[in-house]
Design brief:
about 240 residues; alpha/beta; Rossmann fold; globular; binds NADP nicotinamide-adenine-dinucleotide phosphate
């Protein structure tokens, strides 16, 4: 797909991956529709945003009625959307005995229920593109059952199932779905954040480079022969 003049919605636009994706999209002069919890979290990209070609929506995705409201607003303001990139997410890494029900709900709402609701609300706008594309940022934790990740795995297994089913349901109906099944990326994501990751990296754990993955996502969006799922893991990820 030629991205020039396309309308691209990035959810989690202020995050490590979201903000990198937005920066790359700007090079193709797209119209941006950004969703973030609070506008001030877009600080890292605010300089590159052009008022005429950027719309910003605030939404706490833990709160599903807010997600429905924002989904309705975007659908009514943008009857056509070419690309939706779901790049918001939360990583609460705890074992069953330690996790609170509220943390389970938060994880499932942000990582699974919110993408579902947004896709449901925006599917007509995506179909109106004639070549609508949804890119979901999944995880190897949507394939591998890892101790200490019960909520994160449950949410990402769910997201993976949803994305792959919708790929089939919307085949030949003007919308394609691509799931990025990614191993650990060197960002501030998840319990422990960047500090923990840098410590593990110094002990030999390998991480994907966020800039490389953001570029890969843009390349996939442009590729007319894209697949339903891409699996990209750093070395040693499956044995970790
Ligand atoms: N980094 C990795 O190792 C890795 C690996 C595989 C997959 N992924 C997936 O990639 C995606 C992006 O992760 P990242 O590395 O860019 O992490 P990140 O920098 O923490 O970004 C997460 C994004 O989600 C948003 N978010 C979290 N809670 C929210 C809420 N309640 N309402 C609205 N937005 C909320 C964050 O906004 P706030 O700033 O408001 O919190 C931020 O924009 C996630 O779906 C993650 O599961 C990451």
């Amino acid at each position: 797909m030629d991205l020039r003049d396309k309308i691209v919605l990035v959810v989690g636009a202020g995050g490590a991956m979201g903000s990198r994706i937005v920066k790359l999209l700007k090079k193709d002069d797209v119209t941006l529709v950004l969703v973030e919890r609070e506008k001030k979290l877009l600080e890292s990209i605010i300089d590159i945003l052009d008022g005429d070609k950027t719309s910003i929506y605030e939404c706490d995705m833990e709160n599903l009625s807010e997600v429905e409201k924002v989904g309705n607003e975007i659908a009514s303001n943008f009857p056509k959307i070419d690309i939706l990139i779901n790049a918001a997410g939360v990583g609460i890494y705890k074992e069953m005995k330690d996790i609170e029900v509220s943390e389970w709900e938060k994880s499932i709402n942000i990582n699974l229920n919110a993408p579902f609701i947004l896709i449901k609300k925006l599917i007509i706008s995506l179909q109106n593109s004639g070549q609508g594309l949804v890119i979901n940022l999944g995880s190897g934790m949507g394939v591998i059952a890892k101790v200490g990740r019960v909520t994160y795995c449950a949410s990402k297994f769910g997201l993976r199932g949803m994305s792959l089913v919708l790929s089939k349901e919307y085949k030949n109906k003007s919308v394609s779905f691509t799931l990025m099944t990614l191993g650990s990326i060197m960002t501030d994501f998840g319990t422990g954040g960047m500090e923990k990751r840098e410590e593990l990296a110094s002990n030999g754990k390998k991480y994907l480079d966020p800039d490389v993955i953001a570029q890969k996502i843009i390349d996939i969006a442009k590729d007319e022969n894209r697949q339903d799922e891409y699996v990209i893991y750093p070395e040693g990820y499956e044995n970790d």
